[in-house]
Amino acid sequence: MAFDIASGTMSWGLSVRMATLRPSAGDFCLLHGFKLQLDETIQQTPLDNGISALEAFTHYLKELHEFAMLESLRGSLKNCEPSHIQYVLTVPARWSDAAKNKMRGAAINAGLIKEDDPPSRLNLIVEPEAAALYCERNCERFDLNHGDQFLVCEAGNEAVDLTVFEIAVTAAGRRLSKVTNGHGASCGSDVLDRHMQRFLEEIFGCIAANFPANIIPKLVDTFAHDIKSQFDGLEDQFLRLPAHRCFDDLEDPEAFGIDDGYLFLTAAELKENVFEPVTKDVLSLIQEQLTQTEDCAAIFLVGDFTSFNYLYSRVKQQFSSQISQISIPPRPDLAVVHGAVCAGLNLYFGHHKLPLLVTHMLYYHPELPNSANPNLPKLSRNSGDAFNLSEEELIARQVAILQAQHQLDIEKLMIEHHLQLRKLKG
């Protein structure tokens, strides 16, 4: 997101990228990492211009929700009552309950739900657990069986979260249980961009201060689109320079490695200054998880960052001697989203073909578990007891909650859901 200093407005999506590449880029404050900063226990750089993380995230969620609703209501959801839409939001593994409560408040202020809606309209799932559901659905292609353990490394733009899971095959189907407590750090792919920006500023030194405000962001943007994901640590790179007189006016372009409109960057200096510092953090996180389990059969890399050639090659190099299977599932960038949808379907419709994995927080509401509402069945927010419930017990627990709230017509929702599935299947 970007904050327009002059107008006091915020923009998101493609408009942010365009704003930072214009000559007027200096009029904008680029906001990033604000979702992570909802958890006050995570050390983050403060946002520019005094904007709070909650304000930035609420605005982003509002814009994203309005866009999603506009697109969805044009298609399969055009006849759906908004009150029947239930949401599953993903959260980092290390988030506190206070941070999850802030997300609920942001969802209310962004218009996803209302304050007096039943807690079941908003569900939270931890990101590695959502990714684990997605990976579990691909078990056959990865040859994972009863008792096998696998590590999910969910590496996105800002953060990396990891957890080890174990598969149990029962008469009711496959189930997942957690072996380790999830943890993570702020070492996602966007951190590479910040390292690249500092590296470019070092290359050009004091001259960079005379560049227009959009020049360095343009170089970083070109790096992100042309080099970042493809870099393998072996090939030297040529960074295309934007057409601007600031480069033409350099007295000795070759001293900076500039030739014919390109900046020459060796593989060694890119590794040392940009890629390796971030990659080492990810490798350290993986090692921490593996030391907590004796027999891990596979590592699944999901999220945008894990599809980058350099990170994948370093993980293989570091761990292939002890882990027989290190894989990137299909569409790793969508693994968390797909897994979150699976979790939502499991919770509400008892879809028997889907595995059941329930996060610590089935429904997140500050009043659950039910100390303030004796009519609701007990739910544990802080333990993993829900992971090992039988399918029948889990469904019974969910139905009991919904019936106690007198808010939702379960049968109607199930019928609508199955009709939608039938339409999708053609």
**CA-atom Rg in angstroms:** 24 Å
Name the overall outline: globular
Q: For the report, how would you describe the main beta sheet?
A: 6 strands, mixed
The mean pLDDT is 77
The rounded distance between the terminal residues' Cα atoms is: 39 Å
Structural class: alpha+beta
Q: How many DSSP-defined strands? A: 14
SSE order? EEHEHEHEHHEEEEHHEHEEHEHEHHH
Q: Could you list the spans in which at least 5 consecutive residues all have pLDDT below 50?
A: 350-413
Number of helices in the DSSP assignment? 13
Task: Bin the helical content.
Answer: 25-40%
Strand content: 5-15%
Explain what this protein looks like in three dimensions.
With 426 residues, this protein is an alpha+beta fold. It has a domain at 189-274. The chain has 13 helices and 14 strands. The radius of gyration is 24 Å and the shape is globular.
Question: Can I get a quick summary?
Answer:
The chain has about 425 residues and is of the alpha+beta class. The protein is about 40% helix and about 15% strand.
List keywords for this structure.
426 residues; alpha+beta; six-stranded mixed β-sheet; 14 strands; 39% helix
Strand-helix topology:
Blueprint: E1 2-4, E2 10-11, H1 14-21, E3 28-30, H2 53-72, E4 87-91, H3 97-109, E5 122-126, H4 127-136, H5 139-142, E6 149-155, E7 160-170, E8 173-178, E9 183-185, H6 189-204, H7 215-226, E10 237-240, H8 245-248, E11 258-259, E12 262-265, H9 267-290, E13 298-302, H10 309-319, E14 325-327, H11 335-349, H12 391-405, H13 410-424
Parallel strand pairs: 4-5, 6-13, 13-14
Antiparallel strand pairs: 1-2, 1-3, 6-7, 7-8, 7-9, 10-12, 11-12
Helix pairs in contact: 2-3, 4-11, 6-7, 6-9
